[in-house]
Amino acid sequence: DVQLVESGGGSAQAGGSLRLSCEASRQSYCMAWFRQVPGKEREVIATIRVIDGYAIYVDSVRGRFTISRDNAGNTLYLQMDSLQPEDTGMYYCAAGPGHGGYTPDCHSALGYNSWGQGTQVTVS
User: Fold this and answer.
1) Positive or negative: CA dihedral 84, 85, 86, 90
2) Cβ neighbours around 70 below 10 Å, total
3) Which site among 15, 24, 45, 50 is 20 to 30 Å from 1 CA-CA?
4) What is the torsional sign of CA 61, 9, 113, 1?
5) What is the pLDDT of residue 71?
6) pLDDT the model gives residue 111
7) What does the pLDDT read at residue 41?
């Protein structure tokens, strides 16, 4: 498995920004950010295909959040702008081979098998 370590969480006011980082022990085909709020299941919010940077976002964060990776593909970022209170939650970095065979799908939660410890984001 890939070892993942997140950093950059914290508190922000509504309308503010935060940037999350995730250091990976090695490169994976897919990387993603998941978010979990109390009482709900962890959901994927942004994914990236490491080889070409192709990214997909869920509707609730599209246009406000940006997922990216460094050239080596070992560091993942999530730039979060225009934060809203509903963005509050635990954010997890994930890595994996993707779901499916010939062209793995990076946006399926089934495609991830390594997780970071999570970092808390609180927006008020």
Assistant:
1) positive
2) 12
3) 45
4) positive
5) 83
6) 94
7) 93
**pLDDT-flagged residues of the chain (< 50):** none
CB 28 within 8 A of CB 2: yes
DSSP E strands: which ranges in 1-124?
A: 4-7, 10-12, 18-24, 30-36, 43-49, 54-57, 65-69, 75-80, 89-96, 114-115, 119-123
Query: Is the sign of the CA dihedral 84, 106, 21, 91 positive or negative?
Result: positive
- pLDDT tens-digit series, residues 91-120: 999 999 999 988 899 999 999 999 999 999
- Our CA dihedral for 81, 87, 88, 91, rounded to 10 degrees, sits at -80
Burial class (CB in 10 A: 0-12, 13-18, 19+), 72: exposed
Q: Which of 29, 31, 34 is nearest to 117 (CA)?
A: 34
Q: Is 31 strand, coil or helix?
A: strand
CB atoms within 10 A of CB 66: 16
* Cβ neighbour number for residue 108 with a 10 Å cutoff: 16
Walk across the sheet containing 4-7 and list its strands.
Answer: 4-7, 18-24, 75-80, 65-69
The first and second tokens of residue 95, run together, are: 């890595």
